[in-house]
Design a protein that fits this description.
The protein is an alpha+beta fold and about 120 residues long. The chain has a domain at about 35-120. About 20% of the residues lie in helices and about 60% in strands. The protein contains 1 helix and 5 strands. Strands 1, 2, 3, 4 and 5 form a 5-stranded mixed beta sheet that branches. A hairpin with a 4-residue loop joins strand 1 and strand 2. The two termini are about 20 Å apart.
Length: about 120
């Protein structure tokens, strides 16, 4: 796999994992503004000194490359992502998070038996 693809793939996998995890954390802090949408305001999430292992996973989507990653380790020293306007539906309720800042510091990622493929 090319170095550029590896550098792009690891943060994308981390971002997908964090968005799904942070949505659950953010949902617990919500205040209902109406019966259809619960507005959660701004969320600041920092994850540091952690190791994430993703194993025995298949990821498919349009435009994804076809590749297999086996026993690769990546370290992310420091990175910050910002998401504006995230909507999450959970158990029939819609939640709106206006602004999410995610900071990653000294995060290790291990990919073992991960297959990525184009869904088309």
């Amino acid at each position: 796999m090319r170095v550029a693809a590896r550098r792009l793939l690891a943060p994308l996998l981390i971002a997908a994992l964090l968005v799904s995890t942070s949505a659950g954390v953010a949902l617990a802090a919500g205040n209902a503004s109406d019966s259809n949408v619960t507005k959660l305001g701004n969320q600041d999430i920092t994850i540091s000194d952690a190791t994430v292992t993703i194993s025995d996973t298949n990821i498919a989507g349009p435009g994804f490359p076809n590749l297999t990653i086996d026993n690769q380790r990546y370290t992310l020293d420091s990175s910050t992502m910002t998401i504006d306007g995230l909507h999450v539906s959970f158990n029939g309720q819609t939640y709106e998070i206006c602004h999410v800042d995610i900071t990653l510091k000294n995060l290790g990622v291990t990919l073992d038996n991960v297959q990525i493929s184009d869904s088309n």
